[in-house]
Amino acid sequence: MTQTLHVRIESADRSDLEERLEAIDAGEDVEPSEPTLSIENLETFGRVFRSTNLKLLEAIVEHEPGSIRELARLVDRNPPEVLENVNELADYGLLELEEDGRAKRPVVWYDEIDADIPLTTGSGQGRKANA
Q1: Strand 103-107 to strand 96-100: parallel, antiparallel, or no bridges (unpaired)?
Q2: What pLDDT digit, counting tens, does each position of 63-113 carry?
Q3: What 3 state SS string does the chain have?
Q4: How many other C-beta atoms can be found within 10 angstroms of the C-beta atom of residue 79?
Q5: pTM of the model
Q6: How far, in Å, CA of 66 to CA of 30, rounded?
Q7: CA 97 to centroid of chain Cα atoms
Q8: Positive or negative CA dihedral for 58, 5, 41, 80?
Q9: 101-109: which pairs have CB atoms within 8 A and are 24 or more residues apart?
Q10: Which member of 27, 43, 94, 118 has the lowest number of beta carbons within 10 Å of its beta carbon?
Q11: What pairs with residue 5 in β-bridges?
Q12: d(Cα 56, Cα 49) in Å, to the nearest integer?
């Protein structure tokens, strides 16, 4: 079964989260929401989802490496560089690092990313072409 992470370029809106938490506290049934990551702008999106990071995510999903060193071998890169990229991905919640003895094992729970990239500003008004 495909697990999809939805990514949007927008500032994180926490109002829905607060309402959901209040409903849970009140004992109400709350429908699970789709896993969504909000990235603040297109520049950050480009940095986080650059090709080197996407290759790391693909290798983790396909091969389930047991350590950062093993992941580095899979993508033919130096472990310190891979660790830097993995930490960035972990900071954004795109992967988790599980302790496995002395090693840290990168884990990705999804196998597909769905990105919503708006081509207009937040006002919904795009630039008009000169005629």
Answers
A1: antiparallel
A2: 999 999 999 999 999 999 999 999 999 999 999 999 988 889 999 999 999
A3: CCCEEEEEECCCCCHHHHHHHHHHHCCCCCCCCCCEEEECCHHHHHHHCCHHHHHHHHHHHHHCCCCHHHHHHHHCCCHHHHHHHHHHHHHCCCCEEEEECCEEEEECCCCEEEEECCCCCCCCCCCCCCC
A4: 15
A5: 0.75
A6: 35
A7: 14
A8: negative
A9: 103/66, 103/67, 103/68, 103/69, 104/67, 104/68, 105/65, 105/66, 105/67, 106/56, 106/60, 106/65, 106/68, 106/71, 107/60, 107/64, 108/57, 108/60, 108/61, 109/3
A10: 27
A11: 113
A12: 10
* The two three-digit tokens of residue 79, written as one number: 């472990």
Q: At a CB cut-off of 8 Å and minimum separation 6, what does 90 contact?
A: 96, 97, 106
Q: Which residue has the tokens 């989802």?
A: 49
Structure tokens at 4: 């999809």
The tokens describing 22, both together, are: 């209040």
Give the tokens for residue 57. Answer: 């995510």
**Helices 68-75 + 51-63 axis angle, to 10:** 110
| Alpha-carbon span 123 to 118, nearest angstrom | 11
Token digits of residue 33: 């929401």
The amino acid that residue 22 corresponds to is E
Cα distance between residue 68 and residue 39, in whole Å:
25
